[in-house]
Specification:
300 residues; 33% helix; three-stranded antiparallel beta sheet; 22% strand; 11 strands; Chloramphenicol Acetyltransferase; 8 helices; alpha+beta
Length: 300
């Protein structure tokens, strides 16, 4: 992702320290010191009939297009217009993330014993739906045949004896709090991303409210459930059957106020109901206005 700001004192390799935020937002991380203290859960039902028709119409021009891609593209677009949802809290300090990345758990083989890995593609705020599909496919294909960076880091840690591993993990927590965790670890860590998303519907269960992680910088978790049918009454009073799924969210409430988040979720839902907007890049990209004097204009 383009670096829209110059790095300064107090910034991290993955984010800029926010300055000029309101007093309530500044005090929040000192009162609610962990993500477990700050979890806010939200859900909505997503109608699928029109969305699946959209996917069928564009599968030829965008091979591999799926519902998951549309959801990811909608979140990338929301972040490009509502940058506060891409903030994170570490050690009572609030930062604006300097990239857009989505962590996604995938299986190399769909069986009970199939090995699971996590991919973390990075996106530009100007990416279209086709760009999202291409970047996810590239990450996924690279992870199918061989271990990726996440696997390599996990294997190295697993070689460490338990009594030393506890100290090593504690050290990683400490380095992350200070903002000096090595860049190569931040790059491969699935816990250092804009959001974590999982499709539990692919294994035949409904969506869940997944917990947030204390390690890392992830402030949002989205779970997509299985597809279901229900009977509804349309605007003409006629009963019909509708296919839908439930999206459940777990978020760190400290990153933005309720009004801002609610408006962001309304935008997210509108994009999913009108996904044609995702075929073109946004007309403009909005950057976080609390980064301070280091802000520069974005070149489209």
């Amino acid at each position: 992702m383009q670096k829209y700001f110059k790095k300064g004192w107090g910034d991290r390799s993955d984010g800029w320290k926010l300055r000029g935020i309101d007093p309530i937002s500044m005090l929040g991380p000192f009162i609610m010191r962990t993500r477990l203290d700050s979890q806010v859960m939200y859900q909505f039902d997503l109608p699928l009939d029109n969305l699946e028709e959209f996917i069928r119409q564009h599968k030829e021009e965008i091979p591999g297009l799926s519902l998951m891609h549309v959801i990811m593209a909608a979140m990338v677009r929301v972040i490009s217009q509502r940058p506060y949802v891409n903030r994170f809290i570490v050690w009572n300090k609030m930062y604006a993330r300097n990239n857009i990345s989505i962590s996604l758990a995938v299986k190399r083989e769909i069986t009970d014993k199939g090995e699971e890995t996590i991919i973390k593609p990075e996106f530009e705020p100007t990416d279209t739906l086709a760009d999202i599909v291409e970047k996810v496919k590239k990450e996924y294909d690279a992870s199918i045949g061989e271990a990726n960076g996440v696997d390599d880091a996990a294997k190295i840690l697993c070689y460490i004896p338990s009594f030393l591993l506890r100290g090593a993990v504690k050290l990683l927590f400490g380095l992350d709090k200070l903002g000096i965790l090595p860049k190569f670890l931040v790059k491969v860590s699935p816990w250092h991303s804009s959001l974590f998303i999982t499709n539990v519907g692919s294994v035949g269960i409904d969506s869940v409210f997944h917990h947030l992680y204390e390690f890392g910088t992830n402030s949002q978790f989205i779970a997509l459930g299985q597809k279901k049918r229900r009977e509804i009454t349309d605007e003409n009073g006629q009963k019909k059957t509708e296919k839908y799924t439930t999206l459940r969210f777990n978020n760190d409430e400290r990153i933005c106020d309720g009004h801002y988040y609610a408006a962001s979720m309304r935008m997210f839902r509108k994009l999913l109901l009108n996904p044609e907007q995702l075929l073109e890049p946004p007309k403009q990209v909005i950057v976080d206005d609390c980064v301070g004097k280091k802000r520069i204009d974005i070149k489209q």
